[in-house]
Amino acid sequence: MDPQVEEKIIPEFTDKVVQVKRVSKKTKGGNQVSFTALVVTGDKKGRVGVGHGRAKSVADAIQKAINRGRKSLIEIPIVNGTITDEITLKFKGALVLLRPGKPGSGLIAGGPVRAIVELAGIKDITSKIIGSKNKSINVWATLAALKTLK
Question: pTM of the prediction?
Answer without folding.
Answer: 0.86
